[in-house]
Design goal:
Elements lengths: L19 E3 L3 H25 L4 E3 L11 E10 L2 E8 L2 E4 L5 E3 L6 E3 L13 H29 L1 H5 L4 H15 L11 H24 L2 H6 L2 H5 L3 H29 L1 H9 L2 E3 L15
Antiparallel strand pairs: 1-8, 2-3, 3-4, 4-5, 6-7
Helix pairs in contact: 1-2, 4-5, 5-8, 8-9
C-alpha cells in the first residue's frame, strides 16, 4: 500500500528522468542564435523593402506594359472606403487593416505591410536596404563558419545529412510528431534531419543566391546568376517565396519546441545539455549526470 503523509496525501514515486548529456557544441549554439538575430532583421527590413513594390513577377522584366504579375498586396476604394487586399493570380481576398491598408479604420494608410511589422517602422527604403545588406552579409559569413566547423566536428554528418536509415524511419517519425509522441534522444530524429537539411541546403542557398541576383553589383560580377534564375524579377519572387517558407519553418519549429518541452530544448541551445527520455542510453564519452 502507498504510504500516507501527515497531510493525508499518498506519496507518489519520483518521476523517472533520463540522463543529461552534452548535445549541442558551442559553435552550433552561437551560430544558432546569430541566425535568429539575422533572420529577424532580414525579415522585417525585407518587408519594408517589399513595400516599395508590393508585386511579384515571373520573367526578366516588369512594368505597366507587362501582364506577368502573379502576386500583389494593394488597396482600392470600395463604396467610398479604402480596402486592402492580397491577390494571387485571379484570387483576391480582403485583408483590410492588416495587409494593403493599416492603421485607424477612420484614416487607414495605403501600405502593403503595416508599420509594426517593418524595420524601420516608417517607410524608409534607404535605411531598410542598409540594415538588410549588413545582416545579409553577417548571415552568409555565419553559414560559412557553421559549415566548416560542422564538417570537422561531425555535426554535419551526424545530425544533418540524411541517410537511408532516416528515409526508412521517416513515416513513423511523422506519425509520432503528428500524435505528439516526442522521443528525446541523443541524435536528431529523421523528420528533424529532413527539415534541417532542407533549410541548410535548399532554403538558405536559395535565399542567399536570389538576394545576390537582385544586386546590380553582383550582376556585373556574376552575370550568370541572372540567367540561372531566369531574370531578376523571377529571383525576387523566389526570394519572397523562400522567405515565407522560412517563416513557416520558424513557426513550426517554435510550436515543436513548446510541445516537446521548452525548458529542455532551450537549455540544449544555451548550455548544450539535453535531458534524454527515460531509458535512452547516453553514448560513451558523454558528459552526463542525473
Amino acid at each position: 500500500m502507498a504510504s500516507i503523509t501527515d497531510s493525508g496525501a499518498a506519496d507518489k514515486p519520483a518521476k523517472a528522468k533520463g540522463p543529461l548529456v552534452y548535445r549541442q557544441r558551442l559553435v552550433t549554439r552561437i551560430t544558432h542564435w546569430i541566425w535568429v538575430i539575422c533572420l529577424f532583421f532580414l525579415l522585417l527590413t525585407g518587408l519594408n523593402i517589399f513595400n516599395a513594390r508590393p508585386q511579384l513577377y515571373w520573367g526578366l522584366e516588369s512594368g505597366f506594359a507587362y501582364d506577368n504579375t502573379f502576386f500583389q498586396i494593394g488597396s482600392e476604394d470600395v463604396d467610398g472606403k479604402l480596402k486592402g487586399y492580397v491577390q494571387i493570380f485571379e484570387w483576391k481576398i480582403d485583408t483590410s487593416g492588416v495587409l494593403g491598408t493599416s492603421g485607424p479604420e477612420a484614416n487607414p494608410q495605403r501600405r502593403a505591410f503595416p508599420a509594426w511589422l517593418t524595420i524601420p517602422s516608417n517607410y524608409n527604403l534607404a535605411t531598410a536596404r542598409v540594415v538588410h545588406f549588413f545582416f545579409g552579409w553577417v548571415f552568409l559569413a555565419v553559414i560559412f563558419i557553421w559549415l566548416v566547423f560542422s564538417f570537422f566536428n561531425g555535426h554535419l554528418k551526424r545530425d544533418v545529412l540524411v541517410t537511408p536509415k532516416d528515409v526508412a524511419g521517416l513515416p513513423k517519425d511523422i506519425v509520432d510528431h503528428a500524435t505528439f509522441k516526442f522521443h528525446h534522444t541523443r541524435r536528431y530524429s529523421p523528420l528533424q534531419k529532413f527539415a534541417y537539411f532542407g533549410v541548410f541546403f535548399v532554403l538558405f542557398p536559395l535565399i542567399v543566391l536570389t538576394g545576390l541576383t537582385m544586386s546590380p553589383g553582383m550582376n556585373a560580377a556574376w552575370p550568370w546568376l541572372v540567367e540561372v534564375f531566369g531574370g531578376r524579377q523571377t529571383a525576387r519572387s523566389i526570394h519572397f517565396i523562400v522567405m515565407v517558407l522560412l517563416v513557416l519553418f520558424f513557426v513550426v519549429h517554435i510550436i515543436m519546441v513548446l510541445l516537446a518541452g521548452p525548458l529542455n530544448e532551450l537549455r540544449s541551445m544555451i548550455t548544450g545539455r539535453y535531458r534524454l527520455s527515460p531509458g535512452e542510453p547516453s553514448e560513451p564519452g558523454d558528459k552526463s549526470n542525473g
